[in-house]
TrEMBL record:
Name of the featured protein: Glutathione peroxidase
InterPro entries listed in its UniProt record: Glutathione_peroxidase, GPX_AS, Thioredoxin-like_sf, Thioredoxin_domain
Domain annotation Thioredoxin: ranges: 46-208
Lineage top rank: taxon: Eukaryota
GO molecular function, one term: thioredoxin-dependent peroxiredoxin activity
Keyword vocabulary terms for this entry: Oxidoreductase, Peroxidase
Reaction(s) catalysed by this chain's protein: a hydroperoxide + [thioredoxin]-dithiol = an alcohol + [thioredoxin]-disulfide + H2O
PROSITE patterns xref list: GLUTATHIONE_PEROXID_1, GLUTATHIONE_PEROXID_3, THIOREDOXIN_2
Swiss-Prot/TrEMBL GO biological process terms: cellular response to oxidative stress
Keyword Oxidoreductase: yes
Family listed: Belongs to the glutathione peroxidase family.
Amino acid sequence: MYKKYYSSLLALYNSNRIFFSQSTIPFNSPQKTKLFDTKKFSYSVMATSKSFYDFEEKNIKGIPVKFSEYKGKVVLVVNVASNCGFTQQYTPLQELYEKYNSEGFEILGFPCNEFGNQEPGSNEEIDASACSTYKVTFPLFQKTNVKGSDASPIYQFLKSHNPGEIQWNFEKFVIDRKGNVRGRYKSKDVPGIKDASTLLFDVIKESA
């Protein structure tokens, strides 16, 4: 893993060095400092160098969960919210979980308050609402950020392997049985509902 990390680091360094050498802006100018954000640079390299199974996040109750537990499983990662127009998607998501969990399928829900302040509650309140109102039994994790450079490490990773910013609540990333990010569903799309892509079901059918 470290060899891959340093190779990525060297490639990105060289590409930026070439850019700076060809530019007429002095290297130490504020403009160049702004262009080369070292924090974002190192975060991006780490995100692309890690495996999905290298991550660890605290669940909604504060207990650390190693993602290595999901090796060999198909995982749907969803940024959820309790007061969104899409919150009712908890129901079909729970139905998917109940139907395919025995086939090695998991859903990981990450509460997020970055879109319209639609997840303002505490982790305890979020857990209670999801469980009592929608009977959710799939794993929920601590409230987190998913947008921009402030996104949690797992979301930095997901977006580095399927580029594009998270636009709203209930976007869904599909992880295959080998830890590869295979694609994502937009907020309005739920696997198995109307014209949604069959990607998730295709991945579930694949062997480990």
